Structures are given as structure tokens and as C-alpha cells.
């Protein structure tokens, strides 16, 4: 049976394999193979793989050997453990210390490419939305995470980051710079195609999971966050991805920054569910004559979009025509609660 594969030169093989693995795009049912000085990496979603590693690689259909079964943590336990992958770290959420230890040992003994295991030791808390972690294996809480061709260094104990939102971030990033641009489609300079002067503003930028792909697609970006550690990582990640010339990182409350960028933004990200409505006045200050707003909210399933839409209209309709272009459910957040996004066009 022929399967889709990324064909890449061996010298780029490990970097390409790592990018595809972090985006969960490698087809684990088949072996990575080498033939005629080319490396063939089987993938589950050809288009997503192209976007993750760049248009300069070739997607081909070919026969590759089926993979012998790999040892998983579940194979070593009497149950199927729940964990998340973030780079070479595994994140678990266990109150029972013996169960946490057993899961950690099984993860390390399995064939997963994991070096660090962290157990959630608190809820997300405080103004900077960080949590405590119990380090069960590995050296520290700093990890390197890759998604859709972008690389992020971050310390989970110092900043907020959710790997579960990778698909949502990619959905929004694809809207930057038109349909032809892709986050991982790099020019010879290593920087993405220009987005015709688009100005993008992330009001709660964190380590840059929206800002970096926007900038790689050519947008001029401003990212603001009240957490100084997040801003330091944002600057580092801009450098790692070759877009530092298009990223301005500001450590401050965005409500104090907005006036400095009045009428500046063509695109605004408001990813602060539960309290984004408190910042809509600043968003209106930032918005230019024709601006797209990505507004995130968490609401009851009976009316997940209504409260956000009403808040946006109340804040903006005195100055703008407000058009909701898309009502998108990101994920289930809790029983009967949904994490949603409103993509809204503001036209003065």
C-alpha cells in the first residue's frame, strides 16, 4: 500500500522529522525509510505536513515498510494513562503520587521520545496564568516546542502555554497575508512572505504562539504581555524564528499601551477567555479603519457566542460597522462550557 511521505535530503532529516513529530503528523504505522539518498517520512495529513515543514519539500506517494509495534506507556501499565506531549516533555495530572510515579516510569521506559515528565501541582493561577509543577523526571521545566514550522522555547513554570491550541493558532495564522502564504513557507532569507503591510497586535501575547507565525507570514507584529518572563521568551522566539525585525515585544498592561498604537491594527488577537470583555475598549482604540478581531471566550453551551458578540457590539458599534465573520468552537472547556472564538470584522 502506498502512503503519503515527505521526501527530504538526509541532512535535513532530523529537523524535518522533529517538526512533523511535534505537530503529530507522522504516520506511526510505517517506518521512515532511505532510498537513493532521500529520506521518506510517512505522514497522516499531506497538506498539513507541507504547511509544517515548508513548500520546498516534496510530498510523494510510495510504498514504505510497515512499522513494528512500538512500546507505549499503556503497554507497560495495567491502564491507559492520560498525558500531553510538549516537545520532549510529557505532562500529566495525577493526585496520587504512586500512580504518578508509575506513569512516569512507564513513559520513560516506552519508545516515546521523552526526557522530562512534569505533574501538574496546581491550577492556573494569578494574573500571569501560570501553574506549579512537580518535576518527576528531567532537569527543569524549560522545553522547546515546535508547531507548524515554528519553534518556541518556554518555561512552563514561568509562562502560560497550551499545546492543545496549536490547531486553533494555525487556523488564525492562515488568515494572515492571504491564502497564498504559509507559516513555514520561507523565502531564501528564512523569513516568510510579506503580508502586504499587515499590522497584527496580540494583546496577551505570551511567548508568541500567535505573533511568531504571523510575523513569519510577513506581518508587522506587536505583542504585549504583563508577564516579564513571557516577553523575554517572546523576544528569544522571534530571534529563533528569524523574525525579530518584525516583532515588537512589550512588557506592560495592554490598557496602558493601546493609546500608543491608536488606529494601528489590521488584526487583533484577544486570547484571554473569561475576561477579554474587560479589554474591548482598548481593542477599539487599537483597531484601524478595517480590522479583524479574534475574540476568545468561555461560555455556557446554551449561548456560547452571544455574550461575546453583544460585548463587542456595545464597545465598537459607535465607531464601526461590526460583522461577525465566523463563530468557531475551539474545544470543550468544562461540562456544559465551551471555549469559542469570534472572528469579527470592524469597518469604520
TrEMBL record:
Cited Pfam families: TRM5-TYW2_MTfase, Trm5_N, TYW2_N_2
Listed GO MF terms: tRNA methyltransferase activity
Residue ranges constituting the SAM-dependent methyltransferase TRM5/TYW2-type domain according to the UniProt record: 83-348
Record keywords, A-Z: Cytoplasm, Methyltransferase, S-adenosyl-L-methionine, Transferase, tRNA processing
Stored InterPro entries: MeTrfase_TRM5/TYW2 (IPR030382), SAM-dependent_MTases_sf (IPR029063), TRM5-TYW2-like_MTfase (IPR056743), TRM5/TYW2-like_N (IPR056744), Trm5a/b_N (IPR040601)
Gene Ontology biological-process entries: tRNA N1-guanine methylation
A GO term from the CC aspect: cytoplasm
SUPFAM superfamilies: S-adenosyl-L-methionine-dependent methyltransferases
Protein name: Class I SAM-dependent methyltransferase family protein
Organism of provenance: Natrinema salsiterrestre
Amino acid at each position: 500500500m502506498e502512503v503519503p511521505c515527505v521526501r527530504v535530503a538526509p541532512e535535513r532529516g532530523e529537523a524535518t522529522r522533529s517538526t512533523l513529530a511535534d505537530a503529530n503528523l507522522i504516520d506511526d504505522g510505517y517506518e521512515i525509510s532511505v532510498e537513493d539518498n532521500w529520506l521518506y517520512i510517512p505522514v497522516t495529513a499531506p497538506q498539513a505536513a507541507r504547511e509544517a515543514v515548508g513548500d520546498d519539500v516534496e510530498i510523494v506517494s510510495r510504498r514504505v515498510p510497515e512499522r513494528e509495534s512500538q512500546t507505549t506507556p499503556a503497554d507497560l501499565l495495567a491502564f491507559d494513562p492520560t498525558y500531553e506531549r510538549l516537545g520532549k516533555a510529557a505532562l500529566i495530572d495525577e493526585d496520587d503520587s504512586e500512580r504518578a510515579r508509575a506513569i512516569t516510569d512507564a513513559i520513560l521506559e516506552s519508545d516515546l521520545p521523552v526526557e522530562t515528565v512534569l505533574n501538574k501541582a496546581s491550577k492556573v493561577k494569578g494574573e500571569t496564568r501560570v501553574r506549579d509543577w512537580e518535576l518527576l523526571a528531567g532537569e527543569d521545566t524549560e522545553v522547546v516546542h515546535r508547531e507548524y514550522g515554528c519553534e518556541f522555547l518556554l518555561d512552563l513554570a514561568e509562562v502560560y502555554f497550551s499545546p492543545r491550541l496549536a490547531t486553533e493558532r494555525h487556523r488564525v495564522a492562515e488568515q494572515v497575508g492571504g491564502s497564498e502564504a504559509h507559516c513555514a513557507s520561507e523565502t531564501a532569507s528564512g523569513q516568510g512572505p510579506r503580508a502586504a503591510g499587515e499590522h497584527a497586535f496580540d494583546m496577551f501575547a505570551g511567548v508568541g504562539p500567535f505573533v511568531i507565525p504571523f510575523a513569519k507570514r510577513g506581518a508587522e507584529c506587536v505583542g504585549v504581555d504583563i508577564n516579564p518572563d513571557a516577553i523575554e521568551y517572546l523576544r528569544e522566539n522571534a530571534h529563533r524564528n528569524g523574525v525579530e525585525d518584525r516583532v515588537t515585544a512589550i512588557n506592560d498592561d495592554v490598557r496602558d499601551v493601546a493609546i500608543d498604537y491608536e488606529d494601528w491594527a489590521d488584526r487583533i488577537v484577544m486570547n484571554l477567555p473569561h475576561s477579554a470583555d474587560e479589554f474591548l475598549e482598548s481593542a477599539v482604540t487599537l483597531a484601524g479603519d478595517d480590522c479583524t478581531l479574534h475574540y476568545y471566550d468561555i461560555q455556557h453551551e446554551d449561548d456560547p457566542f452571544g455574550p461575546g458578540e453583544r460585548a463587542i457590539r456595545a464597545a465598537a458599534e459607535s465607531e464601526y460597522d461590526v460583522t461577525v465573520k465566523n463563530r468557531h468552537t475551539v474545544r470543550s472547556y468544562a461540562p456544559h462550557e465551551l471555549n469559542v472564538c469570534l472572528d469579527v470584522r470592524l469597518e469604520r
